[in-house]
Design a protein that fits this description.
The complex is a heterodimer of chains A (117) and B (114). Chain A is mostly beta strands. Chain A contains no helices and eleven strands. Chains A and B meet through strand 5 and strand 10 of A and strand 5 and strand 10 of B.
Chain lengths: 117, 114
Amino acid sequence: DQQVKQNSPSLSVQEGRISILNCDYTNSMFDYFLWYKKYPAEGPTFLISISSIKDKNEDGRFTVFLNKSAKHLSLHIVPSQPGDSAVYFCAASDPKGDAGNNRKLIWGLGTSLAVNP
Amino acid sequence: DVKVTQSSRYLVKRTGEKVFLECVQDMDHENMFWYRQDPGLGLRLIYFSYDVKMKEKGDIPEGYSVSREKKERFSLILESASTNQTSMYLCASSYRGPISYEQYFGPGTRLTVT
């Protein structure tokens, strides 16, 4: 069963507008969340993260919001650019079996973002 | 600059062949991971290692094995390749510690088994 869900397989926005990518999770023990961007034929690259003790983290055009009570996080990209077109993965850090901090990431299935000029 | 390299970008193998995928990181990371990515299935963890000679099964270890003889190198082995192992294989590494759990990825190996 998917513990991290990205319910929108794809999203299309106009250049200059806001892109909002959503992610829901089921395990309230997750304590760290990350967003990755992936271009075709390349490995994912880290974009931004947030600790569960915060509700917002901002880095340039990218902002991640965390709503712990709703077990929901979202990534906002403002303004969106054509180069942002990629697959975006949400991931959560699983503290289970955290002996020596040997943590796994639990991944969503990704959302394909298309930013149209 | 952090660097994770994978031995091949593209690989074509025949059914039944033994396949080795190599991954090297130069960041002195303790943890290393092997994933496969398939359309509609996201990233699925095959195996990971948190120290030399240590390995842990991920979510889909069947048909695969791994080797970690040196800290910087993590190998994925397909003992007898099958067509359902055609996929994009991604290696990643990370620090072991409470500050950040960011994983750094290599460019991937697109494996086709015919």
